[in-house]
Amino acid sequence: MVVIFGASNVLWLVFAVSQAFKMEIFPENRVVAQIGDVISLTCSTTGCEPPSFSWRTQIDSPLNGKVRNEGSNSTLTMDPVSFNNEHAYVCTATCGSKKLEKGIQVEIYSFPKDPEIHLSGPLELEKPVTVTCLVPDVYPFDRLEINLLKGNDLLKNKEFLEPMEGKSLETKSLEATFIPTKEDIGKALVCQAKLNIDEIDFEPKERETTKKLQVYISPKNTVISANPSTRLQEGGSVTMTCSSEGLPAPQIFWSKKLDNGNLQLLSGNATLTLIAMRIEDSGIYVCEGVNEVGKDGKEVELIVQAFPRDPEIKMSGLLVSGNPVTVSCEVPSVYPSDRLEIELFKGESIIESKTFLEDMDKKSLETKSLEMTFIPTTEDTGRVLICLAQLHVGEMEFEPKQRQSIQTLYVNVAPRDTTILVSPSSILEEGSSVNMTCFSNGLPTPEILWSRQLNNGHLQPLSENSTLTLTSTKMEDSGIYVCEGINQAGISRKEVELIIQVAPKDIQLKAFPSESVKEGDTVIISCTCGNVPKTWIILKKKAETGDTVLKSRDGAYTIHKVQLEDAGVYECESKNEVGLQLRSLTLDVKGRENNKDYFSPELLVLYCASSLIIPAIGIIIYLARRANMKGSYSLVEAQKSKV
Q1: For 293-337, what is each residue's pLDDT tens digit?
Q2: Are residue 198 and residue 226 in the same domain, yes or no?
Q3: What is the pLDDT of residues 53-62, one digit of tens each?
Q4: Are residue 246 and residue 338 in the same domain, yes or no?
Q5: Domain co-membership, 552 together with 632
Q6: By the 8 A CB rule, do 581 and 504 touch?
Q7: 3-state class of 186 per DSSP?
Q8: What is the pLDDT confidence band of residue 453, given thresholds at 50, 70 and 90?
Q9: Which of 330, 282, 288 shows the shortest CA–CA distance to 306?
Q10: How far is CA 106 from the centre of its chain?
Q11: Which range of residues forms the domain containing residue 467?
């Protein structure tokens, strides 16, 4: 047993010696990583199960990575790589009392994209352009070199040797200005960027971008041809063709210039054809050659028939006898207007002429006219106005060179001498009928319109017949009736007042404050007649010896300090030309109690004088009755009689 045990120990010692504790690191010594990428550093051991690992930087900075241990391996992963990972990293492995260390240098760079080529604008022939070669997000930029080539020729080179103040990604660029020529067509711009870090092994160390040159030539030498001509007859056709030089070949656009200066697009073809042309098609047409770098335009003026229509005769208003009117003779769309002559005739006599010799500012269609004012009379009816327009252009072959228009005169006469006949009369009794007939002179014969004038002054139309008939008239039919004679030359108006008389009615006779009063009170006796115009009202006091006519005001009679002798019957008589109506009331006057046995000496005198008064009363009654029989009454005469 002892021998066996000793042999086992010897074998174990031999195995342990053969499995000595070792460590490796990958990658070895140095690793180069681009900013933004992911890298891993791995420590591996043999001869120990299991070892312990630790990672650090030589300057004791943060690892800026994650460590993962699995058995005899330990991995430090940096995701993503940044400036903070540019260190010498040390991996330490410990197995019991043994410790092993190995280091690795992490170096970083940034060269992620190909250069970018930017132009300040399109490459237009013979016009300077600036090209920029831009290298984005580069580090370290102090090792950067940029070359700009046009074809095989170097335009510009630049190295960025200035010291870096800190670690950062930089975008660097190179600019060059050149003038494109025809020889540059088809060539290419090449931007080469190199990161000259030979001591670091990475790919790529050189990037390149190519841009093919497209050289443009702005449109020029634009030309228009018109067939058959730019001067055309109305209804004719024309074909206009436009061409323009440029690179790339310009696209052709046709437009028409509007009155406000704007262009109305017509076509995108080189050829523009207009058929069945009208006067409105005259004007300036514009052809434009357009490409990416510019445009060039050319204008042409089309004139459609210089003398297209007959003159137009216009009046400033209706022809009314005695009223001045202006007549114009207008010649539309004429060219050339300085050769035009206009003559105006009435019948066979020329009454006005005009020529247009002024210079024309531009070639355009003009509308010219002649004007004159005259006073028409009825004798002018049936005559004719003749407007004659002549275009004196002997050197031009066209027809017609003379045009004319004729208009027959018709002179109107405004309504006048309007009269109204009323039968039987304008003053009627209620229930009667009346015919009102209206006449008015004028040319053409005026139409008749009957209306009634309302209280607000407005007219209420009633009839368009010359005779207006009212049957079974009522008092409400009273008022002003208007007849109007109307034609296109004017209006003539006549009025008549219709009065419908009604016998007095609705008489009211009242005593205020009461028909029973006390001696010494004041009483008002009032008589009114409703809804009956022009009614005479007479107030009387009845007595056996005769009636006394009272001096009333607006049908009211006031008794101040009423006496016993004021008691009695009072009568109101309302009358007009048609009839009369009577109303009466009895006024009761009560004596005061403390005066029951009172006897006045004055009463005695009055009693004695009664023998003289009675004859006078008889005379008054006689005069009053005589006045009533005549249909009139005078308060002045009545008072004289009473006295």
Answers
A1: 899 999 999 877 688 789 999 999 899 999 999 999 999 888 778
A2: no
A3: 999 998 888 9
A4: no
A5: yes
A6: yes
A7: coil
A8: very high
A9: 282
A10: 74
A11: 413-501
